[in-house]
Amino acid sequence: MDNPKLVSKTTDITYFELNNELNRPVDNKIPLEKDREAVRAFFLEHVNPNTVFFYTLDEKLDYLVEHDYIESEFLEKYDRSFIKDLMQKTYKTKFRFRSFMAAFKFYRQYALKTNDGKRYLERYEDRIVFNALFLANGDPELATTLADEMIHQRYQPATPTFLNAGRKRRGELVSCFLIQVTDDMNSIGRTINSALQLSRIGGGVGVSLTNVRAAGDPIKKIENASSGVVPIMKLLEDSFSYSNQLGQRNGAGAVYLNIFHPDIVSFLSTKKENADEKIRVKTLSLGVVVPDKFYELVKHDDVMYLFSPYDVERIYGKPFAYVDITKEYDNMVNNPEIRKSKIFARDLENEISKLQQESGYPYIINIDTANRSNPIDGTIIMSNLCSEILQIQKPSVISNSQQYEVLGTDISCNLGSTNIPNLMKSPHFGKSVEAMVRALTYVTDHSSIDAVPTVKNGNEQAHTIGLGGMGLHTFFAIHHMHYGSPESIEFTDLYFMLLNYYTLKASNKIAKERQKSFVGFEKSKYADGSYFEAYVAQERVINSEKVAHIFEEANIAIPTVADWEQLRDDIKEHGLYHQNRLAVAPTGSISYVNETSASLQPITRLIEERQEKKTGKTYYPAPFLSNDTLPYYVSAYDMDMRKVIDIYAAAQKHIDQGMSLTLFMRSTIPEGLYEWKDGRTDKMTTRDLNILRYYAWKKGIKSIYYIRTFTENSDEIGSNACESCTI
Fold first, then answer.
1. Which residues, including other chains, have CB under 8 Å from residue 696's CB and lie 6 or more apart?
2. 725 catalytic, yes or no?
3. Which of 280, 433, 539, 589 is the most exposed place for a label (fewest CB within 10 A)?
4. Exactly one of 384, 419, 422, 720 is catalytic; which is it?
């Protein structure tokens, strides 16, 4: 949050004016030097005058501890001389922000400030050292490595971790949570309480409503008694709004429903602009869980049946979300004991596309795709607020006294991101990744959400983490690759294969050290070795000369079949500590601080315009923008979205969870972008979105996040304002 108290009282402020000159071309060129001048002015006019001065590092550390700014416990795990040496070593890297936005975002959102909010107590280097010391948990070697990874911006912890690590008065380190409702009042009540608790302490909360009986289903044999999922959605929205971390952020939540649930139409209607206020949800995000069967029915223009969750659970003996609808569809259609209603599949498909045009929602989870590639014994039923977390869950059984007769498992997300251009410069790619895994493992090991036993249970059993990537488009531009070209796809494939290999290696090493694996490892495809079949089938050959040169120049070796076979055998013998390791979350303000493009997506503008609270417009040039990189920085809104899907599909092959894939559309489609538009209207239609969603499903994409539409009056529909679950 921006704090108006932190605007310097210096009368001669030039940094905003200098930054704003980016938007005024000189001789048809962007005056990029003005942004560098703005950075320098920002430090001279604002940061330096408003930073608390300490004569020595001892004085600084003592002050921060004595005045309850920094915890003493994590510092006491190290010799004071080591801490000071690490701080000095980090200062000596002479880190400098290259863009005004990067420095502005760090000091506004992340730097530790005095209690009155008027002065800074940390430099960027200090926040990094405190993160490194905190996450290394007393290990000087790991702390040194982590500080090096972060000051060179190869690794970026998620915002909750980066912001809170080491602080005395802090929130949770985890990013978000996933919980589920089963079909009874005890579970509904417990879920509302869980939503309140989780929203109070952490980031966004995803809730699966698929198991809840539909409107009109019986309750205690009374027909048409159930009110369905919409009233629960309203209760959740009010809960998130009420429990908002003492007003520090807007309550954020997402609700998921299977597309074969009878309430699916009313569920979608809650997000329509003209929806009745009694049912409209303004702040909840919507996600639809889509089995393969839906795509088949759409393809053949068939009627689709929606099934009573109450009856399905009664017949199958398990909650609706855990039933394989694609496999059981015909059996459920032909079973007279299961109530069902009919709708045309294409009508529902068009309703989804209309809503995506209007609001950007719903997210789409291709649930069969997710479960087919899931190496863990169990069922994935939902995702999170940003659609990248895909992990198995188990339902609970709750008694009338609100006690758990069966304690199920829910999910907490522990996220971090590699900075792709910088990690490719690492002196030792594998060592860098291992340090990142260990940092994330500390967050997992020390996350204990007592207020929500299912989340605590799930975390203790699974030890899951989610390491991802950002800066992919920046990397392409620096290396003169067009986004979506064959060589860019090949690089993406190789990069995430390496990330998969080294996170597996690190997780195996931790399991061996601790002699402990995640619960259920012995039933996984890791344990029987089948997960590795694609990797040991044949040697990986790099086709592109440019990509081969990049890896050769970086001195990064591609794992051989023998390497994969050795890793497979080590994992079969010693196990894996983490049930899940990889996930690509969206990157919000932290990608500005890292001075790189967001996540794996293309940039949206060469000069991005941000409307900052209290301070007006701020401009951010695409990272490393120059005459050299300019031709390779095409806006996402001017790009065929199949190229974006192809890039994400290349990464998805190696990622055990999901990715926050956003599709960027113009309300008026540029001529020649999509061949199916030839001879038709140039306006974006539901057909365009239908085709792209189908293409994504065929390419093996597990989830689609927002649909963002750039309108003719320069508005962006579906733009995500919530940073609760972003890195």
1. 366, 645, 649, 661, 704
2. no
3. 539
4. 384
Q: Which of helix, strand or coil describes residue 341?
A: strand
pLDDT, tens digit, 9 for 90 and up, residues 159-192: 889 999 999 988 778 889 999 999 999 999 999 9
Angle between helices 124-136 and 80-91 (to 10 degrees): 140
First-to-final CA distance of the chain: 16
Tokens representing 645? 């899907």
Name the CA radius of gyration of the chain, rounded. Answer: 25
Q: What is the rounded CA–CA span in Å between residue 64 and residue 549?
A: 48
Nearest to 389 by CA among 660, 602, 119: 660
204 DSSP β-pair partners: 176
Q: Which of 530, 514, 360, 344 is nearest to 442 (CA)?
A: 514
Active site annotation includes 386? yes
Question: What pTM value is reported for the model?
Answer: 0.94
Q: Where are the alpha helices (DSSP H) in 180-229?
A: 185-201
Q: Which tokens is 641 given?
A: 């979205």
Phi, psi angle pair for 306, to nearest 5°:
-105, 135
Identity of the residue numbered 118: K
Contact 166, 134 (CB under 8 A): yes
Provide the CB-side half-sphere exposure for 351 (13 A, CA): 18
Going by C-alpha positions, the residue among 637, 640, 654 that lies closest to residue 696 is 640
206, 256 Cβ separation under 8 angstroms: yes
Which residue among the candidates 313, 388, 490, 723 is catalytic per the annotation?
388
